[in-house]
Structure formats: C-alpha cells, structure tokens
Fold this protein.
Amino acid sequence: MQLTCQRNSLTAAFQTVAGVVPSRTPKDILKNVKLQVSGNQATLTGNDSEIGMRCDVPDVQSDSRGEALLPTARVLAVLRELNDDLVQLEITNDATWIRCGYSEFRLSAEDPADFPPVATFEDTDYFVVPAAALRTMIRRTIFATDSESTRYALGGIQMELGLDKVTLAATDSRRLAVVTAASSVVGNPAIPATSPVIPSKAMGLIEKSLGDGTGEVHIALHQNDIVVRCQGTTIASQLVQGRFPDYRKVVPETCNTTIDLVVAPFYTAVRQAMIVTNEESRGVDFVFGKGNLKLQSKATDIGASTIEMPIAYDGPEMTITFDPRYVAEFLKVLDSSSTFHLNLISHDDRATMVTDDHYTYVVMPLARD
C-alpha cells in the first residue's frame, strides 16, 4: 500500500487524532493510530476505549487499498522534523516506510486487525450547531469541570439539546458555567428526557478538531454514546454515568446589586491580586465601595497587596472573598474589550457574572476565619 500527500495536511490530521491516544494504557495497541486507505481517500483513527476519533487526510494520491498501524509518538516526531512539502508512505507486511525529500524512515509494523473500531456518523436525524458557536461554548464551560471528583458527572459537560437551542453546563460544585446558543435539527431527532453528560476529554477533543474554521457540527445522540461530526472529523464518545446537578437551582433568580465591568481592567486587577497568594491563603478580599473596588490579598511569608480600580457602584461597602483563580478563569475566556454584569446578593452568597450573549457564571465565596 502506498500513498502520497501534503506533509502539512498529514501532520495536522495526525496531531488531531493523536489527542485521543492514551499515553498510558495496558492495551499497547491503543498507542497506535490506524491508517485506512481506499484509493484517494485516507482516514486516521485513534481510540482510548471510551473515546474514538476518525479524521480524513485531504489531498491524498493513491491507487492502493489497505490499512496499517502507525506508532503515534514516533510518526509525530518524524512528521515534525520533515521539511519538504510532499510525504510518501509505503506499507509492507513488516514495516512502514516514510519518505520525504532526502529522508527515509523504516518503522516496525503491527497487525491492524486487532485495533478496536471507531464509529462512523450514520444517523439521518441529528442536531446541528454552528462550529464557531460550539467552540466558544466549550471554551466557556470546560474549565469548570472536575475530572478528579468521585461524582463522575462533574467530570463532564452536560449538553441540553433542543429543537432551536443548545445549552452546555459544567460545575465542580464551587462554581458553575452555563452557556446557550442557537441550534437546529435535521430530520426528527428525539429530545432526550435526561440531558447527556459528555466527558471533558471528549469535549476538549471536539473543540480542538473545530480549529478556527466555520461550518456546522452534526450531533447524533444515542442511549449510551454521542457521535459528533464536523467536516472531515468524527468523534464518538461514551456518555458519563451519574446524576448531574440541576444547574437552574444554582443560578440566583434575583440580586441586590448589579455592577457593570469591563473585562480587561478587571482581569488585570485580579491577576495582580493573585500574585500575593498561596495554597494556604488563596482567597482575595473584593471590597466594593462607593465608586471603587479594592482587591486585598495577604499570605504569610510572602506579603500583601492592594489593587484598586474605579467602578460604577454607589451602595454600602461590602466585602466578599473569592478564590481569584475562579474569577480569572471566567475572565480569560471573554473578549478583553467586552463588558459583563456582576450580580451580588450579600457577602456570603453566590456571585453571578452574566454576559449579553447568554453566558452565566456563578461562583461561591470563600469563608474567612
């Protein structure tokens, strides 16, 4: 089996699939990427037993048909060091040959027959979400998951699918991120009675596979798994088992104070306040006064800091202690020139940050000794 393709295209597809390949696994065969060739079509697949990915390699020239296993780390290292535009792969019974310019590599081959299959997108009834919107939604929620929790559902992102909108929600029980965007359907997909929870690793792979391009993402939901297709990439993932919290009960319905803030200066102030914190004293006091916000941090053996910035606030002074990492992670995924609404109830209650494009972030305050 032989094929010729653009080195950049092969490298990009290989890097995408390599994201699902486990670094540690008792099944050594999963450390490989499977190459399937049929004429001028070539597909790379990776699998970690729970998540599988298929990625087409564009602009392939071949009159062969067959399949092979490629050692992921070794092939990636080869592709990264090549310089010429075209790369040629030749698969024989006992070896994989990679040739590019004046360079030639011979890698040992394994039997591809034992590699677990990866699902293809066969559904005719499915949900459709714009790629750009889904990419933004994943970035705005994935950081709030908790993959270390014994509550397995917190290690994923809940995807609430409807006929005309999709909502993603993630929480680690100390903060909650919820974002909604418009969507559509093709055919007549069933609206699930219980919203599925997709592993954060799978959602991260979906976000990376979308790149910066446009287009649509097709989502097919089954009883125990989800299949997502975007252009030449398909990702199939098992669903997370367990009960996801009712996020609607976490978002406060009312507040006592709303302060409009610009992202950039507030993010700068929070990052500065984080400097003088440590694991034992991570909290930063956010002191809201008339026309002024003061961020105060103090840590034993490190020092103290006070950061001030003007704000549009005319109420009584109120001090709330937050973990600044939680605030910074929210601000990091927003456009620096955008604004958001900070809704406050009291010094010991949840704070809610809301944007005008249907993104809500709830963070719990820390208790001071």
The chain has six helices and 25 strands. The mean pLDDT is 93.
